[in-house]
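If you are new to this repository, start here. Below is one unmodified record pulled from the training split, so you can see the exact layout before writing a loader.
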Amino acid sequence: MNPPFFPLTLEQMRSKKFFHTLNCGARFTVAGASVSTALLNHPQKVCGYRIEEDGKSIVYASDTEPAGGKHPKTLTRFAKGADLLLFDAQYTPQEYIEGKIGWGHSTYSDATLLAKTAEVKKLVLFHHEPAHNDTFLSKLEQNARRDFPDTVSAREGMTIEL
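And here is the target side for that same chain:
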């Protein structure tokens, strides 16, 4: 959150800020919710989050890609049985193999495979490729639903109740 990547400095923002060092693999509680973290496969260090409260669970996994063509067992165990999986689905399989390997992002088919293997209830595709328009994302969502029917593509303003 520093220029040129963010237009304001932290000092210009009028709020109290608290910073905590977080290591992937950490577990902690926030407002009664249990939060666990896991290291994801990305060129820079990235953590995924699993939030559990009142018997419901959400897994947020952005900026990750399969290692050697498949997601590690640790990620499958991390997402196991989640009510909602929010997953990086930036590319189509074709885009991925045509020059995006090693960039730290997944495809919608990687997302559906993980959702099935981890037996999650609902999958939300997000971290959309900026070059993809709404029509393209709708087709991507349709393709993903063939493999995992309870899939939606994230949209601005979307709300999902658990």
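Two things worth knowing about this chain: Strands lie at 27-30, 33-40, 46-53, 56-61, 84-88, 122-126, 151-153. The CA atoms of residues 38 and 147 lie 25 Å apart.
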